[in-house]
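User: Fold this, then the next.

Assistant: Folding the first:
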Amino acid sequence: MKFDNIELADGVSGARDGQGMKRVSTHYIADSHYGLGVGSGGDLNEDYYVVWNEWPTKAGTLGDHSNTVSSTALAGIGITTLTVRCKDGAVTGTLDCAIVRKSDRKAVRITITGSTKGHYETITVSNASTTITAIDPSDGPRTPETGRLINLGYA
């Protein structure tokens, strides 16, 4: 399973030291107005990073949302609450990403294909357009970071 994007809006890899998940609407892609985190506010969590193939763009007014995900595959990598900061209007595009735990590179894939704002604000598997699945280590995820580690002889 391959994910092509790891570079944050500031041009740095999310897998690097001092980087990670942050619930800031411009942290991943500038002007997307959509951010995922595991902490409150703009707190940085360096234990995880996000890689993606598709990232939504939102319009409207910014808002914060907190989702209990303890009954999903995310709990298997230590995430029980997933926080979202996004605008509340129209959605362009879809979400296809993986959250990777840095310590052991275990990952969970999140896909959202819905067209309503609620699908992207309230991330739950009860939404028919949302899937949250563990990625089998034999399937990856294959990312620019795993390629870098293989080249350096670490993986």
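Now the next one, as you asked:
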Amino acid sequence: MDNYEKAFYDHYGDDNQSPIRSALEFVLYVEHFDPTQDEMSAVFQSLPDTEQQRLKNATKRVKQLAQGKQNNG
């Protein structure tokens, strides 16, 4: 969670009761708990919009890197 988002929640409150609150926490959760697709989807949907977007952007970049590596090697 970046400083802007933290300040927003500090000021307006936070109705998100999920223990997973950031893109990094989500990745670590998936790595360590091996959740089902439904569980992952529920946790992803509970993330703040900014964190969902970070995950989407990171996934896209990693796919592009993997594609480039396959094409080059």
